[in-house]
Amino acid sequence: MSGLTGLGRVSIVGAGQIGTMIGQALTGADQRWGVLEVGLQDRDPAIAAEALALGGGDRVLVGMDQVLVADVIILAIPVTGIVEWIETWGSRVPPGSLLIDTGSSKGAVVAAMARTVPAGAAAVGGHPICGSEANGPAAARQEALRNAPFVLTPVREDGPALTLATRLVQSLGARPVTMAAAVHDRIVARSSHLPHVVAGTLARLCRDSGLVDPSTVALLGPGFRGATRLAESDPEMVASFLVANATQVAAAVADLSAELSRLAEALSLGQGSVAEILRDGAAARRDLLGASQ
Amino acid sequence: MSGLTGLGRVSIVGAGQIGTMIGQALTGADQRWGVLEVGLQDRDPAIAAEALALGGGDRVLVGMDQVLVADVIILAIPVTGIVEWIETWGSRVPPGSLLIDTGSSKGAVVAAMARTVPAGAAAVGGHPICGSEANGPAAARQEALRNAPFVLTPVREDGPALTLATRLVQSLGARPVTMAAAVHDRIVARSSHLPHVVAGTLARLCRDSGLVDPSTVALLGPGFRGATRLAESDPEMVASFLVANATQVAAAVADLSAELSRLAEALSLGQGSVAEILRDGAAARRDLLGASQ
């Protein structure tokens, strides 16, 4: 590739919400980033065509031979698909080119990259924190990348790879945040994967109570709607990152159940005990989100 | 009171988000509803004054003797406070007047009303489904009542009481939905009370993981923010409705833990099993919310 003179040719594998969003940002990126061409590949040609029509790229790529002729290859498919892709094609990433992904679980991705990508090529795990529960190219909002954290998880001791990945993230208008894959996975198990698990479970419990019919459905207010919103996420994508991060997710589920039992016990101790736990929950949220702003 | 000729004088006990919102709607209600005056009482005079300044009423009431001189008395305080109020003052609701509340748990409220409110007065449990996690008079948005479901739970076989409560709800621009208190409480335990419990617990788990520091806090994205939003609700108010609905909430917590375990087990069965559960969660949400629109 053209090294520090520009990002060059970019191939994006997967033209869903995130792939399209990244393609839009790259096709509109300032000249100084040196993006020469953005190619889009999707196993569903109709999706690739839709993403192209939405400004997600310059042309549709057909087959991995076309994808692999690139300076930057971005994998924007569900995590298990990312790992399979790397195992199948990782050894063919060209010398000097960058392979990066956008999956929400990083341990398995980084391990696959370390195993297969040649030492002469650059490989970095990536996770942009900007998706919504909506699916497909039409859900892409390029502005969601603006200042969004984009986690980079190093694969090897490889300064140039991280420099290249950082420039890619900056060209998208996002904010690079580097951390170890294992740390990333332990946190998102609790901050993102667990909330995804809970959202659908709350919806199922409510339906399966058998109590909600046309005369009582009015009780489902804005609280329920917000608490279950993540259940609208693509089930294959979510199942993929849950399974890829299974150990941490299972631990988070166990922690949640234990804490819920504690609160259920407090119900019999009276309002003061319950309020104390709730106040601590509000304080925790403010500690965390206050610190993120 | 003036019976079918108008709602007459209204007293609102509690000038928080809901009390202020109702006061705003009543002071601005069409003349045909016959609202003569809206009085606001709050144990914190500064809150009552703030609500008054926001158009939540015509004057501030001091002490329950003033509150009880009314054709309609609306209790807009936390549920345990509502029950205490009814036990203390319910016997003094004037003949022909209506006592109604706005609490999120109805069984204890309706039982207290049945015990204390004289047969000559009207008493109905109420629950407007329109609050947000924000607190205080400044959080009141009168338009949130527009077409919002306002549950009415009968206290006795008393047609005129329900007719009067229905007219009050209509004067607010809300939509009356009548159901038994026990049915209401079983549903909201799952649709509202459980999500409140979960929101703060998710925030605590994330903080207590000890993994989130300034270098990793960027991982808390829009999903975490949305999933924990209900933790911002007033802890005393939430503790109050949880304790008042303790049996149902504890059952809902147990159901949630069981379902979460089932999903954790599916993690080891592979992506297909997990995706199936997630798809069912999305279908449940759509079944429920589709039916509510």
What does this 3D model show about the protein?
2 copies of one chain form a homodimer. With 293 residues, chain A is an alpha/beta fold. Helix content of chain A is 49%, strand content 14%. Chain A folds into 2 domains: 3-179, NAD(P)-binding Rossmann-like Domain (Rossmann fold), CATH 3.40.50.720; 183-291, 6-phosphogluconate dehydrogenase C-terminal fold (Orthogonal Bundle), CATH 1.10.3660. Chain A has helices spanning 17-27, 45-53, 64-67, 79-89, 107-116, 159-171, 181-208, 222-227, 235-244, 246-266, 271-291; strands at 8-13, 35-41, 59-60, 72-75, 98-101, 122-128, 149-154, 175-178. Chain A has an 8-stranded mixed sheet with strand order 3-2-1-4-5-6-7-8, sandwiched between helices. In chain A, strand 5 (98-101), helix 5 (107-116) and strand 6 form a beta-alpha-beta unit. In chain A, helix 4 runs parallel beside helix 5 (107-116) and helix 7 (181-208) packs across helix 10. The radius of gyration of chain A is 21 Å and the shape is globular. Chain A starts with 7 loop residues before the first strand and ends with a helix. Chains A and B meet through helix 7, helix 8, helix 9, helix 10 and helix 11 of A and helix 7, helix 8, helix 9, helix 10 and helix 11 of B.
- Secondary-structure element sequence of chain A? EHEHEHEHEHEEHEHHHHH
Q: Which chain pair has the greatest contact? A: A-B, 99 and 99 residues
Which class do the helix and strand fractions of chain A yield?
alpha/beta
- What shape does the CA trace of chain A take? globular
Instruction: Count structural domains of chain A.
Output: 2
- Quaternary structure: homodimer
CATH superfamily of the largest domain in chain A: NAD(P)-binding Rossmann-like Domain
> How much helix, percentage-wise, in residues of chain A?
40-55%
Report low-confidence residues of chain A grouped into runs of 5 or more: none
**What is the radius of gyration of chain A?**
21 Å
- Assigned CATH architecture of the largest domain in chain A: 3-Layer(aba) Sandwich
Strand percentage of chain A: 5-15%
